[in-house]
């Protein structure tokens, strides 16, 4: 029968990490692994963009992570991603976990891959969440409490058999997920190519800037002291954090009490069909942070770092929306948003974008063609993303079943 032991009995030592100093100020320089350097999809560290920091030699001896150590995220997280993720460091390079992370060194009779899979199961089934303490909006993992959890500890040979099985099966699932992701990317590229053909494909000497086709309004600089989290008797504020690729997300909402709404703020009320564009980091993975306002997003007020575009009599909002989705627009702003600490675009840069002049009838026909194609493309993309999501759920369930003994694995006693 597989023994059940406190989680801490799987590790010979548990220590916190350190942020260190500037490289020139340390006796030793090491790569510092932050939460953003956790490749949680594959449960491994990814040091490709990790910073190099300086440390005292004694600190390196006490806190650095060797190959086979686990790193745990102790502070951070968010509403949809609780703190407590764990990854395995399987590189020969010695690294230092950041001060918001910890290092767990497995016992000699514990396979580090098995230990990582086991802790991933605790995270995915919600048990890690019970050890989280939250103050002032920051999640902190009570690692001591987590390490008291009772977990199965099979013999080392069985741990290795489980880890080998999961290495093979998760790699197979990851390959399927990657194929779904590539298909989504191909569909998005095909839609971009169609937009280019329909909007820009014909030779036309009459080109105009967006400033000729729409009214532009940067958001109002509301004082953050006026923000409220209480929606009663208040109006929702559309901030940069609420603008996603193709839609508005309201998971993190701020409100302005109606009593503080002045007459000059009324012009910042959004209307159905308005286009909004995030001006900070407008380009992210998956496309442009721009969306059309729908009736379900209203009422709302436009806040700084977001720009509103509203078509005038020369254009339609849908035509403008496809123009912003075009590769030509993204090519315009890509050089602007790279190599900067906080990439952003300005109202003038948006206004200067040039498109071929089309009659209103031609715009409506272009929108009809692109709208039908977009609907079909979005349906396929939604299906593929759902398939990838289900594969991810299967991956997590498989890990839990394997490490808890619910799944029969060759070489592991029933």
What is the arithmetic mean of pLDDT?
90
Low-pLDDT stretches are none
Strand count, sense and barrel status of the largest sheet are: 4 strands, antiparallel
Percent range for β-strand residues: 15-25%
Compute the CA-based radius of gyration.
Answer: 26 Å
How many β strands by DSSP? 25
End-to-end distance, in Å? 8 Å
Query: What class do helices, strands and sheet pairing give?
Result: alpha+beta
Strand order of the largest sheet: 2-11-7-9
Q: What form results from the Cα inertia axes?
A: elongated
Number of helices: 8
- The proportion of residues forming helix, as a percent range, comes to 25-40%
Q: Can you describe this structure?
A:
The radius of gyration is 26 Å and the shape is elongated. The model has no long low-confidence stretch (mean pLDDT 90). By secondary structure, the chain is of the alpha+beta class. Strand 12 and strand 13 form a beta hairpin. The strands form nine sheets. It has a four-stranded antiparallel β-sheet with strand order 2-11-7-9, covered by helices on one side. The longest helix has 45 residues, at 156-200. 32% of the residues lie in helices and 22% in strands. Helix 2 (112-124) packs across helix 8 and helix 4 packs antiparallel against helix 8 (360-403).
